[in-house]
Design a protein that fits this description.
Length: 171
C-alpha cells in the first residue's frame, strides 16, 4: 500500500439509511480505509458452495482436503472471493452510491481458507477522479486485503468502482 494519509471507517451503517447519509464519491478520498468483517467460515458453508459451484474433492471432503496441498477442507478460491464481496458489501458498499464496477484489475488467492477460519480485512481507496464523460460520476480505485485469524493474507484484489457524486447529473 502507499503512504497516503488515511482515515479509517469502521462498522457498518444500515443499508436503509437515506441517501443524504450514503457514502458518495466525495467520501472516497485516497487513503481512506474501511474495515471488513469478521466473517467466520464453516465447513457446511464450504461444502455447500463447492457442491453448487466448484465440486473439487478438497472443497467437499475433509479427508480429501487434508490429502491435498491445501491441508484441510478448504474454500474454493471463488468462494473466498464471494466471501470477500460480502464483506465489502456489509462493510461499506451497501451504504454507498455505488453504480457498479467495470471489472477487476487483479485478484490473488494467497493462502487456503480452511473450515473454522475467521476472516477480516480492509479496503483502501488508492485513487479517485471525476469522470469527464459522465458529470456527477466518479471512479475510485480500491484495494481489498483479507486475512485469517492469524493475520495471514488469504486474498487480495484491486478494482475500479463507479460512484455518484453528492450533486450533479449522471448522464
Amino acid at each position: 500500500m502507499n503512504n497516503l494519509p488515511s482515515r479509517v471507517i469502521t462498522g457498518g451503517m444500515n443499508a436503509d439509511s437515506d441517501s443524504a447519509q450514503m457514502l458518495a464519491y466525495e467520501d472516497f478520498t485516497p487513503g481512506t480505509r474501511f474495515e471488513l468483517g469478521p466473517y467466520p467460515v464453516s465447513a457446511e458453508e464450504i461444502v455447500a458452495f463447492a457442491g453448487e459451484f466448484d465440486p473439487q474433492p478438497m472443497h467437499l471432503d475433509e479427508a480429501a482436503g487434508k490429502a491435498s496441498l491445501l491441508g484441510g477442507l478448504a474454500a474454493s478460491g471463488w468462494h473466498t472471493s464471494s466471501i470477500m464481496m460480502r464483506m465489502i458489501y456489509d462493510g461499506f458498499l451497501s451504504k454507498s452510491l455505488s453504480q457498479g464496477a467495470p471489472g477487476v484489475d487483479f485478484a490473488q488467492w494467497k493462502r487456503p481458507v480452511l473450515a473454522g477460519d475467521t476472516l477480516r480485512g480492509e479496503t483502501k481507496v488508492l485513487s479517485a477522479r471525476p469522470m469527464a464523460s459522465r458529470p456527477g460520476l466518479g471512479v475510485i480505485k480500491l484495494r481489498h486485503e483479507i486475512v485469517n485469524q492469524r493475520g495471514e493474507l488469504v486474498c487480495a484484489c484491486e478494482n475500479p468502482v463507479f460512484i455518484r457524486m453528492r450533486e450533479g447529473p449522471v448522464s
